[in-house]
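User: Could you go from structure to sequence for me? I need the amino acid at each position, not a summary. Structure tokens:
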């Protein structure tokens, strides 16, 4: 039986509503290790849905959140996620509007930002 370990949704423009549906699917996922959500027009609300869903995830190690529209509020959701989920160790935020806010939150268990 094959299981999905990598999901690349980059450039699909899923937005906040799509993020909510994705979060519903991720909430109980136990196989995904890499999730690429770059360039998806994700704002603060979509980020909140995803962060809440991934808070207790024990398999996802890499999250690509580059080139999204998340700002300070969304960055706080990501920071809160990283305080409780220590499995994610690679977070990609290239050209992200929330990078500087997240960097100053003290979330430093990440191997690569």
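Assistant: Here is the amino acid at each position, in order:
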């Amino acid at each position: 039986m094959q299981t999905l370990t990598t999901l690349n949704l980059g450039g699909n423009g899923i937005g906040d509503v799509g993020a909510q549906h994705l979060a519903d699917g991720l909430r109980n996922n136990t196989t995904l290790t890499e999730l690429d959500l770059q360039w998806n027009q994700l704002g603060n609300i979509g980020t909140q849905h995803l962060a809440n869903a991934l808070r207790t995830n024990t398999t996802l190690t890499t999250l690509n959140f580059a080139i999204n529209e998340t700002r300070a509020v969304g960055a706080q959701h990501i920071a809160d996620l990283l305080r409780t989920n220590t499995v994610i160790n690679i977070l990609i935020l290239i050209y992200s509007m929330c990078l500087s806010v997240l960097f100053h939150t003290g979330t430093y268990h990440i191997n690569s930002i």
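One structural detail worth keeping in mind: Residues 6-103 form a domain with the Leucine-rich repeat, LRR (right-handed beta-alpha superhelix) fold (CATH 3.80.10.10).
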